[in-house]
Amino acid sequence: MTEPTTEPAGRATGRTLLVVLFDGVQSLDVTGPVEVFEGARRACGDRSAYRIRTASLDGSPVRTSSGLTLVPDAGLAGEPAPHTLLVPGGEGTRRPDPRLVDWLRDRAPAAGRLVSVCTGALLLAEAGLLDGRRATTHWAVCDHLAGTYPKVRVEPDPIFVRDGRLSTSAGVTAGIDLALALVEEDLGREVALTVARHLVVFLRRPGNQSQFSAQLAAQTARREPLRSVQHWVTQHPEADLCVESLAARAGLSPRHFARAFQAETGTTPGRYVERVRLEHARRLLEDTADGVTKISRACGYGTTEAMRRAFVKALGVAPAEYRRRFRGPVRPAR
């Protein structure tokens, strides 16, 4: 893949965005990023900031996995190498047209920037474009990607992964997060923030944020009282959530509780509590003006240092830096 010279942030230079279309594509994988880049054209005041084009193999309309019909601008054969080549996902990536894979293998390396959304990573992998590279995809497909293409360094947790000029994202809405990150790189933070506000999303999710919320990462326990304990933890992250306290709430011995909790949820009580507290702290940093000290206490960390260690371990940034980079519109401090 070529490595073009980095362009100064905020300077529009007519970057071409080419979106690959195929039967069975997921419509949101296409329209989500396209709305971000189109919004950036308007926000920066230069309609030539991005030249957005869509193309299918022969230029024919395609039917999305939800039944919508998309009409491309052209056929892929006649398209020059773009600044950014975006490959969306969808059911059509499971048994791809060999002609599309051949086109990607031959032509994608000439793109200045190669991007996949969701299972679009499967198309890139089939074309050999992910060999030796770090990549992600929808959480439900990560094992398949890793097992089928062992040369790919699959990272199942992040919502998007950037490896040089290659960027891959997790499922559906994560493509919007990645597109916002690319706009910020191209045109600056203010343009990206304007687009995020217009789309009523926060410019806040770092690529290494987990695809899973605490409740999604852990299965819901099948039976009481474990299910009630899970719910109570999410409502009281500031409480004493040691195994002994949770076991007492469940009316079980600590040993029995820990064993039953992991068997039914797929994670340990301690790991579940860590995820809940981190998730709650992120929301407070993103959505409120509360100080880090107050937030650390509200989330059960006790000290700002304990919260800092948890953030660095899970997200690679300290709480203050996380807030600076990813906070959206805030509510007044309580």
Automatic annotation (TrEMBL):
Any one GO molecular-function label of the UniProt entry: sequence-specific DNA binding
Which PROSITE patterns does the entry mention? HTH_ARAC_FAMILY_2 (PS01124)
The UniProt record lists the keyword Transcription: yes
Ranges where the HTH araC/xylS-type domain occurs? 227-325
Instruction: Read off the InterPro entries from this record.
Output: Class_I_gatase-like (IPR029062), DJ-1/PfpI (IPR002818), Homeodomain-like_sf (IPR009057), HTH_AraC (IPR018060), INH-QAR (IPR052158)
Q: Name one Pfam family in it.
A: HTH_18
Record key words, sorted:
Transcription, Transcription regulation
The record, for PANTHER family, names: ARAC-FAMILY TRANSCRIPTIONAL REGULATOR, HTH-TYPE TRANSCRIPTIONAL REGULATOR RV1931C
Name of the molecule in the record: AraC family transcription regulator
Q: Which organism is it from?
A: Streptomyces pristinaespiralis (strain ATCC 25486 / DSM 40338 / CBS 914.69 / JCM 4507 / KCC S-0507 / NBRC 13074 / NRRL 2958 / 5647)
